[in-house]
Design goal:
With about 210 residues, this protein is mainly alpha-helical. Helices cover about 75% and strands about 0% of the residues. It contains eight helices and no strands. Helix 1 (about 5-15) packs across helix 7 (about 150-170) and helix 2 runs antiparallel to helix 8 (about 175-205).
Length: about 210
């Protein structure tokens, strides 16, 4: 799985309440600890889900080898159905213009809460769960090592950490910039996610 595949899929993982929460944590009083805890919880969650999907995929395909040509394996067929479901959910939530009320409490949240939220949002949220399962299963179906999933996890974590990194680099100027970026991403993330999911479906269908 090359970088051009990993980058858009990592964006799917953080699009929506995931990145919005990261922006809220980055503007909190304890932004450093809360942001770090949030990213750590996300890393743990994604690693567990992709790892479980990878192990199940290897078990389902024996050695994890796929047939030559454009034949779609059972694993990839399941993945395609999951991706279509994720696209449906993204489209269904396209008109949600305001973040959930609980997000307003994130600026005063503790690092423990941030860790829990990162673990749940990146592991249980439907689009993220589907994406992680798809990547883990597809990697196993291709016969690749699980290590090839690690760049995806790392890039997703880096994107989640971006708001905190901006505060670190820009200081007080980030306080005015971050809300504008947060609002733009919240308004447009569903469109980008739909395009990316279609991109991944094309990769699977082409045997990539």
């Amino acid at each position: 799985m090359d970088f051009l595949t990993i980058l858009p899929l990592a964006f799917v993982m953080i699009a929506g309440p995931q990145i919005i929460s990261a922006f809220f944590f980055a503007t909190s009083d304890s932004w450093g600890r809360s942001s770090a805890a949030y990213v750590l919880g996300a890393i743990l969650s994604i690693t567990l889900v992709t790892g479980a999907a990878y192990l199940l995929g290897v078990g389902a395909t024996g050695e994890g080898d796929t047939s030559e040509g454009t034949h779609i394996s059972t694993i990839d067929a399941i993945i395609l159905l999951l991706l279509l479901f994720a696209m449906f959910k993204q489209f269904q939530n396209r008109n949600q213009t305001e973040p959930p009320k609980w997000m307003g409490k994130l600026e005063s949240a503790t690092p423990k809460f941030a860790f829990t939220l990162g673990f749940l949002l990146l592991g249980v949220f439907p689009s993220d769960l589907v994406t992680s399962i798809s990547i883990g299963g597809h990697t196993a179906d291709r016969g690749d090592s699980y290590l090839t999933v690690l760049p995806f996890i790392g890039l997703t974590a880096l994107l989640l950490a971006t708001p905190a990194l901006l505060v670190l680099l820009l200081g007080s100027r980030a306080k005015a910039l971050l809300p504008k970026i947060r609002d733009w991403m919240d308004s447009n993330s569903w469109i980008i996610s739909e395009v990316v999911l279609v991109f991944f479906i094309v990769i699977i269908l082409s045997g990539g």
